[in-house]
Design a protein that fits this description.
Largest sheet: 8 strands, mixed
Strand content: 15-25%
Number of strands: 21
Helix content: 25-40%
Shape: globular
Strand order of the largest sheet: 5-4-7-1-9-12-2-13
Structural class: alpha/beta
Radius of gyration: 22 Å
């Protein structure tokens, strides 16, 4: 993995660097000047929840990339509690966000794919989601951008007021990269072209949120959800953010071409046929550096929008009485493990930023395992509005107050029935639906290059995590669609089409088709 130390080399654009440095210093000194939230606040605290799409641990508070520049998130982390070992419950947008907002696991709801919307299922249609919980406790609720997946939840049933949607914004006249596999999906694109920050969907979302924050009434607490689309593909960036990083010095993620040879062959079933290209395509078209550059630039742009929102809160009457929670729905591969995108149970796909700040929240970092479905009961406890008793998440308030108190329950990620990643403080166990397993020592091998499942000296660690494997996961919910894997009597089905292990749909080099046979 990349070093966690601050970057020592910078892009060769001093004017941009100076502007960013000045902006960072101003933000750190003014945005977070108030250090006594709890003592000065009155009434129930408000909630500002900032959601970021497809953002892995390439942010300064987590040190996932040594060159990334995210001064707003870094400043937020320095005045709040950062969970350095937080993980999503599903490496996919709809299922992850459904789990977070309901505080229920995909293995409970059966929602593993990009469909269905949980309100369309009889067993979950009346479930009290996180914003409804706050509405029931006297809060006015707001939403802008991507909070639920796509257009799900954009109605008055979920929120009192709804702002602009979560979209990429302006696009180039034609795609910037060569044709990609599996239909040349229009979202599969990245690179720089001449457009303005103001043309981007996330800028428009930040505009709406900042305007609302400046006009919130004093006599009614609010729950504001602010969802940013980038760095989700298409990773289109303006020249301003592209020039923040230098191609000549850009560091690519650690990579081994033969990394999958000691992985379970079943791991390929979790991303059998997807529009996200594999590493073999990036190499053939010389696109990995372009993708990494674009992804980093998109992260810095989104960080600037986070900074705009936090600055608006700081300038509002609510600065001393608002809890901030920032999270990403899942990570993203950029060539590691021979893939791009999410849809895996490895660290790059499950590890996410999670930061709390505001009244009563200590400053610091904790390595305690944390899950995104813990956000619901945590925010409920922090605001004095007890969560429903049947949520599956556990409040993180103990860790917020005592960051050295490491909880013993691991973070668990589901990706289709029977596939689970189980991450403790040091080890990750992956159990696939065919019974095969992988084990990684993420502290000593942060890139998860060496599968330790057959090593006797690590058998006890595997067994400790194995006790958390769910033996009875819910089957796919009715009308499940997109990125779903299901076992039927005659074999495995990917997106409702039978898998032929002898004929994989895209290159899995250096593996051979015979490696996939079960």
């Amino acid at each position: 993995m990349f070093r966690i130390s601050p970057p020592t080399s910078h892009p060769a654009h001093p004017s941009q660097m100076n502007k960013l440095f000045v902006w960072s210093v101003v933000l750190a000194s003014t945005l977070f000047a108030s250090v006594s939230f709890a003592q000065e606040s009155s009434g129930r605290p408000n909630v500002l929840m900032i959601c970021i799409d497809d953002l892995n641990d390439w942010v300064e508070p987590l040190g996932g990339h040594p060159q990334v520049q995210t001064p707003a998130m870094q400043a937020l982390a320095e005045r709040g509690m950062t969970f350095t070992n937080a993980h999503c419950q599903s490496p996919l947008c709809n299922s992850s966000r459904t789990s977070l907002m309901l505080s229920l696991r995909p293995s409970t709801t059966g929602i593993y794919g990009l469909a269905p919307w949980f309100r369309n299922l009889p067993e979950w249609k009346d479930r009290v989601a996180l914003p409804q919980h706050f509405k029931a406790h006297g809060y006015r609720t707001y939403s802008a951008g991507k909070v639920y997946h796509g257009r799900y939840g954009r109605d008055k049933t979920e929120f009192d007021e709804i702002g602009p949607p979560g979209v990429a914004g302006v696009k180039p006249p034609e795609k910037l990269i060569p044709m990609t596999p599996v239909g040349d999906h229009p979202l599969m694109d990245w690179g720089v072209f001449d457009h303005r920050d103001e043309d981007k969907g996330d800028y428009i979302v930040a505009d709406w949120v900042t305007e609302k924050l400046s006009a919130m009434p004093d006599d009614e607490p609010f729950f504001m959800s602010c969802g940013f689309f980038l760095p989700h593909v298409p990773c289109h960036v303006t020249p301003k953010w592209w020039e923040l990083y230098d191609d000549e010095t850009l560091q690519l993620p650690p990579y081994r071409s033969d990394d999958r040879l000691d992985c379970s062959p079943f791991s390929w079933y979790l991303h059998w046929e997807l529009p996200e290209p594999r590493m073999s395509w990036l190499e053939a078209h010389d696109q990995q550096k372009n993708l990494v550059h674009s992804y980093l630039a998109c992260i810095s742009f989104v960080d600037s929008q986070v900074g705009r929102v936090l600055a608006a809160l700081e300038e509002s009457p609510h600065r001393d009485n608002t809890i901030i929670c920032l999270w990403s729905d899942h990570g993203w591969h950029l060539g590691e493990k021979n893939v791009t995108g999410k849809n895996t149970l490895w660290e790059r796909s499950t590890h996410v930023p999670l930061i709390f700040a505001g009244p009563g929240i200590a400053r610091g970092r904790t390595q305690s395992p944390a899950e995104l479905l813990d956000i619901y009961p945590t925010l409920a406890e922090l605001t004095g509005s007890p969560a429903p008793k049947d949520v599956e998440g556990r409040s993180l308030v103990t860790q917020i107050q005592s960051p050295n108190q490491i909880r013993q329950t691991p973070a668990i990620t589901d990706h289709n029935p029977g596939n689970q990643g189980i991450k403790g403080e040091r080890y990750r166990l992956i159990r696939y639906a065919d019974g095969s397993e992988e084990l990684y020592d993420v502290i000593n091998d942060p890139n998860e290059f060496e599968n330790l499942i057959g090593h006797a000296e690590h058998a006890d660690a595997a067994q400790r995590l194995r006790q958390f494997v769910r033996s009875d996961p819910a089957p796919l919910a009715k009308n499940s669609q997109h990125r779903v894997l299901e076992k039927k009597a005659d074999g495995w089905y990917w997106e409702h089409k039978k898998i032929d292990p002898s004929n994989p749909p895209m290159s899995i080099a250096p593996n051979q088709p015979s490696d996939l046979s079960r």
